[in-house]
Design brief:
149 residues; mainly alpha; 83% helix
């Protein structure tokens, strides 16, 4: 019992037989080889797991970069579409307002009519200025993020 407590895994009693000693030694050599093989397999599995974790991290970073680029492209497309879609009707309104003013005798308008016309012009000017600021900020955003608007 003392031997087992100290780490022994087997023992042979006296008198012993040669065949028994050989059989026990072979068994323990096989056990040692099996244990060494298990340790080697465990080491390989650990290395493989580490490689897989590294690959997973690289894949995740790559995927995050792709998603970020796709988001930037979506913002770019939305920005360009919104700018174009808003600019076109504003240009039409501006043109018709200019035609309306040319076809009217401004001095014959009432004060209220002149005030309405002035408000339309100021609102249109503000809208054009806002669209220009939007275009400029979009342009700066795309330059900072290496995209061409």
């Amino acid at each position: 019992m003392r031997g087992f407590k100290l780490g022994a895994v087997d023992y042979i009693t006296k008198p012993f037989e040669d065949a028994e000693v050989v059989a026990r030694v072979r068994t323990h050599v096989r056990l040692k080889r099996s244990l060494d093989l298990l340790r080697e397999y465990n080491s390989r599995l650990t290395r493989t797991l580490d490689e897989m974790q590294t690959s997973f991290i690289e894949l995740k970073e790559s995927q995050d970069a792709i998603v970020a680029r796709e988001k930037q492209e979506a913002v770019k497309t939305l920005s360009m579409t919104a700018s174009h879609e808003m600019n076109q009707p504003v240009t039409v309104i501006q043109g018709y307002l200019d035609l309306l003013k040319q076809s009217m005798d401004i001095d014959s308008l009432t004060i209220s009519q002149q005030k309405y016309l002035d408000r339309i012009e100021k609102g249109l000017t503000k809208l054009i200025d806002t669209l220009e600021k939007f275009r400029q900020s979009s342009h700066l955003y795309f330059q900072d993020n290496e995209l061409t608007p």
